[in-house]
Amino acid sequence: MMKLIKITAIWCISCIYMNELLKDIQYEYETLDFDYDRNKKEIEKYNIGKTLPVYILLDENDKEINRLIGEKSKKQMIEFLKGNK
């Protein structure tokens, strides 16, 4: 089963917007949420820059297959999630 890694921060307005938008989208991935400030050690391996939010899709072997960075439209988010099945 594929996984969705969500890396956000409580101070990030774009993260709040994208998390609300994501609630309206149907997807079937196991989701792991990480906070940019609190989970530095856990997210280190994903090579995150300074732009948030970051959404990473991993295949069943935990290999990255796609990444979405920054605030996007609902259409772009749907394409990101649905285009990787």
Describe the 3D structure:
- Helix content is 28%, strand content 27%.
- It is an alpha+beta fold.
- It has one domain (3-82): Glutaredoxin, CATH 3.40.30.10.
- It has a 4-stranded mixed beta sheet with strand order 2-1-3-4.
- The protein is globular and about 30 Å long.
- The N and C termini lie close together (10 Å).
Short description:
With 85 residues, the chain is of the alpha+beta class. Helices cover 28% and strands 27% of the residues. A 4-stranded mixed β-sheet has the order 2-1-3-4.
Strand count, sense and closure of the main sheet?
4 strands, mixed
Q: What is the second-level CATH architecture?
A: 3-Layer(aba) Sandwich
Distance between the termini: 10 Å
Q: CATH homologous superfamily, by name?
A: Glutaredoxin
| Order of strands across the main sheet | 2-1-3-4
SS content category: alpha+beta
Label the overall shape: globular
Give average pLDDT, whole number: 92
CATH class: Alpha Beta
Count helical runs.
3
User: Percent range for helical residues?
Assistant: 25-40%
Tell me the fraction of residues in β-strands, as a range. 25-35%
Q: Give the topology string: H per helix, E per strand.
A: EHEHEEH
What's the number of domains?
1
